[in-house]
Amino acid sequence: MANLELYRIFVEVAKEKNLTRASEKLHISQPAVTRHIKNLENELNMVLFKRTNGMELTEAGKRLYNELSTAIEKIVDVDKKYSLSNEIILATYGTMLSKVLSGPIADFYSKNKNSKITAITDNSRVLNNPLLSGDIDIAVLRKYNDDEYDKSKYKYIDLGKIDFYMVANNKSDLCKKKKVKIEDLKGKIIYIPRGDNNSTNAFQKLIDKFNLSSEVKRIDSVSMSQIIQEFDDCVGIANSMYLAKELEKGLYTVLDVDFEISPIEIGIYYRKDNSSTELKNLVKELKDFLNKTKRNNNYNKMI
Are 241 and 100 in contact (CB under 8 A)? Predict the structure, then answer.
């Protein structure tokens, strides 16, 4: 007899008709989904999917799906409602999790010892999918438009704007300039954070306008920080929250520029139908910490 988890995975793949989308909704890797489907087929001794461009059900698969789908969905709903594991699914960016949220999450665990947080990290475009489908409990992400997420399922707490700054090695010739112009970046390697947000996209358009695109490299904020500390022939666009400790220590210089680097708006999304004490505690922990961090990271006074 196949276990319930295999049936749950089968139903999700059948609904999505795509292994990648199914793996995102199930929060497990695509190879693991493929392996589980194969195990189910072996246990039932039947082929459930046609492996073409997508995942189309065979006739046997259709019969199984028709019998299982409603029952599995009810079981999943009941499990979410009555589960004693107190699992909370959190979605955010990888750097946000490692550089910013690890502290408040550790504090949360110290006060809620029976809880478990499962973190999903990716870029904002990918994370928007589970937010739309309602598969996460809480998310710390950029602010989406109202039509980009299900307002009937999620409440949004606006945390305001996070500033971005241009930083350089303390020995860079740019540090000697009172105002850095966009033309001054010619010949410099310009590091921009990976991901999709209004700040980096607007800056990309600006450097395209001045034919500086060949100088641009997309990179994660941690690597950017290390490179700029070592080399003086580059600059980086730094999220003040991600690089707060480095900026406080003066490991590189915040440049005064004569062009705009737009901030981004961030906030917390959390499920309305999850009334658990643990989720409420986590929302409060993250909200208080992020608001405090934003207040402490006002680098305008440094420029």
Answer: yes
Angle at 122 between CA 121 and CA 126, to 5 degrees: 125
Q: In 10 A of CB 107, how many CB atoms? A: 14
What Å distances lie between residue 201 and 13, 167, 177, 205, 254, CA to CA? 34, 18, 26, 6, 20
Give residue-wise pLDDT tens across range 59-82. 999 988 888 888 777 776 766 665
The pLDDT value recorded for residue 281 is 92
Residue 183 is which amino acid? E
259 within domain boundaries? no
Number of domains forming the structure of the chain: 3
Query: End-to-end distance of the chain based on CA atoms, in angstroms?
Result: 67
User: What CATH number is given to the structural domain containing 63?
Assistant: 1.10.10.10
The pTM is what? 0.66
What's the CA gap between 157 and 185, in Å, rounded? 37
Domain ranges, residue 24: 4-82
Going by DSSP bridges, is the β-strand pair 189-193/234-239 parallel, antiparallel, or unpaired?
parallel
- Which of 82, 115, 146 marks a domain boundary? 82
User: Between the CA of residue 98 and those of 58, 84, 190, 237, 293, what are the distances in Å?
Assistant: 43, 27, 24, 19, 15
Dist CA 206 CA 32 (whole Å): 42
How many residues are given for the chain?
Answer: 303
Q: Which residue has the tokens 């999917």?
A: 49
Residue pair 165/192 in contact by the 8 Å Cβ criterion = no
State the DSSP string of 198-229.
Answer: HHHHHHHHHHHHTT-GGGEEEE-HHHHHHHHH
The CATH number assigned to the domain holding 117 equals 3.40.190.10
* Both structure tokens of 260: 């705009």
